Amino acid sequence: MVEKLSGEARSAALAGLDGWSEVTGRDAIQKRFTFAGFPEAFAFMTRVALIAERMDHHPEWTNVWNRVDVVLTTHSAKGLSRLDVELAAAIDGGAG
Amino acid sequence: MVEKLSGEARSAALAGLDGWSEVTGRDAIQKRFTFAGFPEAFAFMTRVALIAERMDHHPEWTNVWNRVDVVLTTHSAKGLSRLDVELAAAIDGGAG
């Protein structure tokens, strides 16, 4: 069972991420990715889908043409957990 | 330039679709698709992505694990057009 991040562990984890911000009114983080067009946006989504499936932790995400808005939170922890931070870093490292 | 659907043409087009409903406050249609899990949901999205790209008309869509919420509207027509109805039918026929 993964636990919700809080206090210093949470601050340190968020400080290590690039371009992710906290979602207003939810214990979650978000980042917007913008691409040249739909094929590039969906190629990104496909890379993220494979990363997410391998981690068994999945994003909430919305795509409108060349834009992908990704929200990460951990439903079982009822908030932000290390899984979200790991997935965010993996997205930035291998799919962004 | 594709035109916004209205009047009888609009009613007839919507009547021909299965499970699509009008979005409150927007000239758009929506449908929720639910699957066994994330791989099945993303497989559906991949099929829809190819259909959308071939039609050069793309959905606004959100995925949360096994669920995909699809919204169709035509930005250039500032509302629902025949492109949305064609894409809805293509999704139901070839990707649902």
Which stretches of chain A are poorly predicted, pLDDT < 50 over at least 5 residues? none
Mean pLDDT of chain A: 95
What's the Cα radius of gyration of chain A?
A: 13 Å
Greatest interface (CB-CB under 8 A), with counts per chain: A-B, 16 and 16 residues
> Strand pairing plus helix content of chain A: what structural class?
alpha+beta
Q: For this entry, what is the oligomeric state of its chains? A: homodimer
Helix/strand order of chain A? HEEHEEH
Order of strands, widest sheet of chain A: 1-2-4-3
Helix content of chain A: 40-55%
Measured by DSSP, the beta-strand proportion of chain A falls in 15-25%
Q: In total, how many beta strands of chain A?
A: 4
Distance between the termini of chain A: 28 Å
- Give the overall silhouette of chain A: globular
